[in-house]
Amino acid sequence: MNTYIITMELSAIACPLQSLMVAKAKEELEQEMLEKEEQKARYLDEKAPPIQTNMMSLQKLKDLCEELHTKIDVVDEERYDIEAKVLHNTREIKDLNIKVLDLRGKFKRPNLRRVRVSADAILRSLLGSKHKVDLRANLKSVKKEDTEKEKTVEVSDWRKNVEAMSGMEGRKKMFDAAKGANQ
Questions:
Q1: Cβ neighbours of 173 (radius 10 Å)
Q2: Rounded Cα distance, 69 and 80, in Å
Q3: CA-CA distance, 72 to 83, in Å (whole number)?
Q4: pLDDT at 34
Q5: pLDDT tens string 79-90
Q6: Which sequence ranges are marked TM in the entry (predicted)?
Q7: Nearest to residue 63, comparing CAs of 53, 76, 73, 50?
Q8: Which domain holds residue 30?
């Protein structure tokens, strides 16, 4: 309950701060736009001064138009060349980024699905359908009766030897048995 009240108070404080920050950002953006417009006007005044056409004859106006057309053609050619260079560079950057990702090995790996394939099917795919390999022929055969007898013997031995092996005497017997087996 207390944390809810604290968060409500903080949000009440944060709202005016947010609105002040937004207002300040808006002012700075408007100021930046005005500065850009002023820079543009200064650049145009410097590079393209206004033309006085009041007292010009028809022939001078035609010459001026032809001169402006040639300048426009030159600028358009430069613009086209620059755009072609930029396009070429962006393609080259994309290719290099792809190469870098390939060299790093950080590319998306597709999700693999689990497929159940038997060992026989794998061997057939590797060796071909002509070769047949019987994996069961190489297995060792084990009789069930022998394993059951061994289990019962172990259990009976354990129950008989619990009291005999308890205490220090049992440990001595185990030590002697291990010593005898090593020699």
A1: 13
A2: 16
A3: 16
A4: 96
A5: 999 999 999 999
A6: none
A7: 53
A8: 1-48
Question: Is 71 found in the same domain as 38?
Answer: no
Q: Do residues 10 and 31 both lie within one domain?
A: yes
Query: Cα separations (Å) of 165 from 158, 175, 180?
Result: 10, 11, 17
Q: How many residues does the chain have?
A: 183
Tokens 């048995």, residue?
177
Q: In the chain, where does DSSP find H-type helix?
A: 2-47, 58-104, 119-127, 144-165, 167-182
* pTM of the predicted model as reported, rounded to 2 decimal places: 0.34
Q: Which amino acid is at 50?
A: P
User: Are 173 and 165 in contact, with CB atoms under 8 Å apart?
Assistant: yes
DSSP symbol at 129: S
AA letter at 167: G
Same domain, 44 and 1: yes
In tens, the pLDDT along 107-137 reads 566 778 887 877 777 777 777 776 666 666 6
| 42 and 64 belong to one structural domain | no
Tokens of 56: 């010009």
